[in-house]
Amino acid sequence: MSKYMDYTISRSPIRVLTPSVDTTRLRIQSAILVNAGHLPGRTTPRSNATFHHWAIVLITGGSGTYRVNQEEVQTVQAGSWFCLYPGASFDYGPLPGEYWDEYYFTCSGARVAEWRENLLPASGIVQEWRIDEIMLQRMENMLRLIDSGTPDHLDRAALQLESFLYELVFDEAGVEEAKRERLAEQIIEDIQRLRHLPPTVEQIAAIHHISVSTLRRIVQKYTGYPFNEFVHRLRTAEARNILLNTELSVKEIGERLGYSDMFYFSRVFKRITGVSPREYRNRVGP
Predict the structure, then answer these.
(1) How many distinct structural domains can be found in the chain?
(2) How far apart are CA 164 and CA 166, in angstroms?
(3) pTM assigned to the model
(4) Do 158 and 33 form a contact (C-beta atoms < 8 A)?
(5) Which 8-state DSSP code applies to residue 10?
(6) What does the pLDDT look like over 182-220, one tens digit per residue?
């Protein structure tokens, strides 16, 4: 694959690929790769640029900015990606004196409209992705297929681009979901650990550096109960165990679980289990 120097674009050798294949020879007409490239060390930004086709740009090093239609300037860094598309003007590139490393793939056809409508996030917003060797090799393989110049390889590259986009979007969604799941697990673990100390929603929120409203939403989503109700149910479950396995009085059990008022503890227990603590011990015990 040929590289060449263009100091108006980059301080490093670049690759810019534009297939010359007759598009009528392609079997996949709904997604045709128009051009692609790798611009390491790019130093030149673009201003008020417009495009006839949709393109995805992936940044693997350096930093810069991206703006659509003179709207808010967005930060771009290694691990960012964004789209270029018809009907808008774009300002994007590294800041003066800086650089970024860029891969891009330009595609046309009806399939692109489906990607934009059903697969990709909202246009005009910088997204994040996890750079790893597998994803880099996949981009390099697409460049090799495009560079070959044969219709079959261009079809393969188009199919690979669609698969790449799918994993790009949903792998990141999976990563974010995993982060949310782990935060929820940590919150639930902390509530369970502190169930004897009557934790407040403010205390747990402060531990995890989130707002009270966010913590309430997380607990409701992952347990099905509001925060206070979830704490009551954890304590009631513990009370059941203590009632069956110790001779502690109801008052002692309530105090151990953070209830200073025995009668309030008994009301909560009965509301959740349907019987009072004494009735529970007598019915279920030996």
Answers:
(1) 2
(2) 5
(3) 0.62
(4) yes
(5) B
(6) 788 889 888 888 877 877 889 899 988 889 999 999 999
